[in-house]
Design goal:
The chain is an alpha/beta fold and 331 residues long. It contains 12 helices and 9 strands. The strands form 2 sheets. Strands 1-9-8-2-5-3-4 form a 7-stranded mixed sheet. A two-stranded antiparallel ribbon has the order 6-7. Helix 9 links the parallel strand 3 and strand 4. Helix 2 runs parallel beside helix 9. The longest helix is centred in the C-terminal third of the chain and has 25 residues, at 290-314.
């Protein structure tokens, strides 16, 4: 499906307008008291009892959070069709609240509470075992924490995963979660946008570490002067509508000459999680020239978007990107 130049320009202009506010600098909106209460309940009362709180919490946000509700409605119409209704919105919010609660148990190392299936991990383990490192690109789909937890279910128990992120807009949440995490489950974070970020990432990968990043949000920065991790915005069809994706993570992988894998920790209801890894791109071999590098980066972004779209259709209640993804409010 191709889009006209006018449509592409409109989406790009909306993206630039949205980036002026900068989601990486947005203040935390979570209620810290509520988060602490949920963590307390999870640790004291256990998962089964605490899950009884999820239906009223999900219903509350469905009824009294109009902005996320509007974005959820737009997404569900595109993922499952115009028949999507209030029940579908509730199911999505309940799945989201379930993964938030389960973060506590993943960080506590309570893998005995869950039923995990893992697919596609062997090529990834090979890269780590041979000391090359690799990039894992995911999205706001399912659970990221299950990625770190699943290393205890693989043959390579010493897999090292670092989260590549902008931590400034979630410092208090991160601090609370780090306080409840057991040492071996506490995530290693490489902060992007810092003077030594590139060196820290390169050293981590050279030691066989994996770098995980959520790549379904456009990154703030200059279109005219893209940096290694704040690249160009690309407009691609996604769930039937043009959407903006950033090629910065792929440019970073190309610069450091690493393989890229798609990752997803999909919530299957109850205590079930399906963890999947799929090869996306191989930048280990240098590009023939600049044109070849750009072609390979573009192909990798398109493969990422196609994989993300397929997962959204197969697991529609795992999409937790509750902002104006298609930039319709900005337009």
């Amino acid at each position: 499906m191709k889009h006209t130049d006018a449509e592409t320009r409109a989406v790009n202009e909306a993206a630039q307008t949205a980036q002026k506010s900068g989601w990486t600098q947005a203040p935390e909106r979570s209620n810290m008291l509520a988060l602490r209460f949920i963590c307390f309940m999870a640790l004291v009362c256990g998962r089964h009892v605490t899950r009884l709180l999820l239906p009223p919490i999900s219903l509350y946000f469905l009824l009294f959070a109009p902005v996320p509700r509007r974005q959820i409605k737009r997404y569900l119409f595109r993922a499952i069709g115009p028949h999507a209704g209030w029940v579908d919105g509730y199911r999505l919010l309940h799945a989201f609240s379930s993964t938030v609660l389960d973060r506590v148990y993943f960080l506590r190392g309570r893998m005995d509470l869950f039923k995990l299936t893992i697919e596609g991990n062997v090529p990834l383990e090979t890269e780590a075992a041979e000391g090359r490192g690799a990039f894992l690109l995911g999205a706001h789909v399912g659970s990221f924490e299950v990625m770190g937890a699943c290393k205890h279910q693989t043959q390579q128990h010493d897999l090292r995963l670092a989260m590549l992120m902008y931590p400034d807009n979630a410092q208090r949440i991160t601090a609370i979660l780090n306080n409840i995490a057991v040492p071996q489950m506490r995530p290693h974070v490489i902060s992007l946008g810092r003077p030594h970020s590139m060196l820290a990432l390169r050293d981590w990968l050279d030691g066989g570490g994996l770098g995980g990043m959520l790549a379904d949000r456009t990154l703030p920065g200059s279109e005219e002067q893209p940096s290694h991790h704040r690249g160009n915005n690309i407009v691609l069809p996604f769930l039937g509508q043009p959407a903006t994706f950033n090629d910065g993570p792929f440019r970073l992988a190309a610069l450091l000459r690493r393989k890229v894998f798609f990752m997803a920790g999909l919530y299957g209801g109850g205590a079930r999680y399906d963890v999947r890894f799929d090869p996306l791109a191989d930048f280990a071999e240098p590009a023939a020239d600049a044109a070849d590098r750009e072609r390979r980066i573009r192909a990798a972004v398109e493969a990422y978007v196609a994989r993300l779209e397929a997962l959204c259709r197969a697991y529609p209640y795992n999409w937790f990107n509750f902002h104006d993804f298609w930039l319709e409010d900005a337009a």
